Amino acid sequence: MKALVYTGTQELVYRDEPNPIEVSGESILKIHASGICGSDMHAYHGHDERRIPPLILGHEVSGEVQNGKFKGKDVVLNPLITCGKCEYCTSGREHLCPHRIILGMNKPIERQGVFAEFVSTPDTNIYEIPDGLDKNEAPVAEPTAVSLHAVLIGEQSLKKPLSECKILIQGGGAIGLLCGLILSKIKNCKNIILSDPNKLRLNECSKYLDAKYVAPDHNEIESNKFDIVFDTVGLEISRQQAIEVVKPGGSIIHIGLTQPAGTFNFRKMTLQEVTVIGTYCYTNKDFEQTLSILANKEIGSLDWIEFRDLKNGGDAFKQIHDGTCVAPKIILIP
Hints:
By secondary structure, the protein is an alpha/beta fold. The chain has two domains: 2-137 and 302-333, Quinone Oxidoreductase, Chain A, domain 1 (Alpha-Beta Complex); 144-278, Rossmann fold (3-Layer(aba) Sandwich). It has helices spanning 38-44, 141-157, 174-186, 199-205, 236-245, 266-271, 284-295, 313-322; strands spanning 2-8, 11-16, 26-35, 55-56, 60-65, 74-77, 80-81, 101-102, 118-122, 126-128, 167-170, 192-195, 212-214, 226-231, 246-254, 275-278, 305-309, 329-333. The strands form four sheets. Strands 3, 5, 6, 9, 10, 17 and 18 form a seven-stranded mixed sheet that branches. A six-stranded parallel sheet has the order 13-12-11-14-15-16, sandwiched between helices. Strands 2-1-4 form a three-stranded antiparallel sheet, with no helix packed on it. Helix 8 links the parallel strand 17 and strand 18. Helix 2 packs across helix 3 and helix 2 (141-157) crosses helix 7 (284-295). It is globular and about 55 Å long. The chain starts with a strand and ends with a strand.
């Protein structure tokens, strides 16, 4: 099969790779479409110890099952593979499974990713694409589930209705836009600011989400102003801003993974009882709810997705890296 292989820092090669082999309890998918995630970009930059080259990256995917009980079905994958037996898996919090792995990683266990023509996946991670959801748009289910989970845990942390909150979303990528769409169209939030240094990206997001769009240093982002902040960037500077601008008693939902450490105003967090919640993925229930949301068009048009050929995926990564990519999400087609 052809695959886009991560071979070194900022290096991707489109080349022949062995087809996946049939394994009991798993199915092989002929891939329809696969999305580029921020975590794939972290690997591309050489900043992810869980993704070591050479490796086929990617975990947001739809495809047609080639074997087994789902043969011939168009499906979307939940790429989060868990043990199914631990205290988290048996209590509906399987996303916290200590043995969790994801497609497109090789640490601690190798699972080749989906920037390819075929991929193998456990049958338990397969969901049929519902009516109303285009098979090439279906890979966006995974980042939508991430965003839905972040909004839900943020909502649970607050002492007043989410719809009454002043909200800051840091970052206009797919997760930032999806958080905003869920907040606006499903949670009925009217007071949303989305910040990003890329004006072209802000302009693109503004076509789909009713919010105020500003640069990160805009005077609208004031100290102690926001009931809840969604940091989808994960830089030291974005965390510093988040704790500066969140209100006493407010919440910061930290989703971004760009920088793992840095200074942070723990004094304010402590004195003003600020809740800080880290979130990385989602539960099976979140994923199922997401498929319903997308099939029923609850967050509106997905025209903000840009489609590229898999063979040109290296150029897409470079444009995301350079900041010249306008689309919040690029999906690759084999």
